[in-house]
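To whoever picks this up:

The nightly regression suite flagged Gelsolin-like domain-containing protein as changed. Nothing in the input moved, so I suspect the structure step. Input below, exactly as stored in the fixture:
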Amino acid sequence: MISDKSPFSQSMLDAGNVYIISNVDAEQIFVWKGKAASVDEKKESMKIASDFIKKEGLSRHAKITVMSQFSETALFKMMFDNWVSLNAQQGLGEVWSINKIAKVAKVDFDASTLHTRPDLAAKHQLPDNGSGTVKIWRVEGSDKALVPRSEYGQFYGGDCYIIFYSYQPRGRQEHIIYYWIGSKATADEVAAVAILTIGTDEEECGGQATQVRVTQNKEPPHMMLLFGGKPMIIHAGGTSRIGGQTAAASTRLFHVRSGFTERCRAIEVEAVCSSLNSNDAFLLVTPNESYAWAGLGASETEKRECKELAQTLGAPAPEDVDEGSETNAFFDLIGGKMTYCNQPRMENETVSPRLFECSDASGNFVIEPVVGEWCQDDLNTDNVMMLDAWSAVYLWIGRESSPNEQSRSQQAAEDYLNSDPSSRDNSTPIYKVQQGSEPMSFKGFFQGWDHHLWAN
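Regenerated output under the current build:
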């Protein structure tokens, strides 16, 4: 069944089967396992979901969430019309029971149910505040190894991780397993992490956990809350496994940016001046000292987190460097002064940037929004991407995009501006940007921009 609404009813889910339900626009795949489904069906569900992503041509960042019957997430429930949870209290005290008739005692309405409103949890993908218990493993070949608690929140691009989270939102234990895939992890470990996640689910909670596939730099807001208030740190490549560590560079630069939860992500980037961005804060670590560089548009949270980041990395307490007050010695540490993204967003600006994908792969020219937090990997080289930065619109031309996509996207951008209900200025500039030749003003919208991603 395909629909632009929520056409499903809860009665369609049979406890003896496994179902795959997708929201293609949001690149979300849900795998629902009925209580009475066979073991083989449950084991095959992840493979089928992965094959579905390839068949539908979805991004490799598409999120797969696996859950068992009666452990459904709020976001999943929003896919159904009038979902009723097991023993859920309604109105003045009626309790609904699934597939049975029960004698129900009338009780006062419990105001705490407001904290688990599916619409709010779905909007921000926040099942709770992250104060539950966390356990993390690193994938090593076909096995997994516990990560020391002192290293929680640090991830390496050459590794894959399993993050097991337990919490009690409604007086009963619930579980989420995030399995994180580094951008430079080996193909064998990428395959192993999905299998090990299923095994971890069975070992830790009898297969009742919600499983969430996460790729590097696409971490959901809730996952960012699980590290005790510390920033999430993503090291460039390498691995943290014992005996396999990659030696860190003598000079390192971390791009620090906060999300709407006020938790920060720190991504290691190339230690050159062109990596700086006036909208954010950066931590520069050298063999003898460290510096917390604050762009004109950096928030107080980002500035503060630079100091926390230095402490976590075991670097000296950083010296504060405000944009515009840098010394030549500072720039010498990052290869000399050169152009970088130095156009800070205004503090009173309330409109968030939006990214769209323009494609004619289906035979028709269509424009689809890229939902959630996006990164450089979301720029599809087969298509044209449109970035609405409010003060300007960028058309990013992928090298493999078709002539039709390139010509139609220009007119589409003009129509987009003219039809904006907020009465946009029709003189808003439209920039056409070629893949590999992006200006700094464009790169600045993508945290941790990799200047060499498309070099080959």
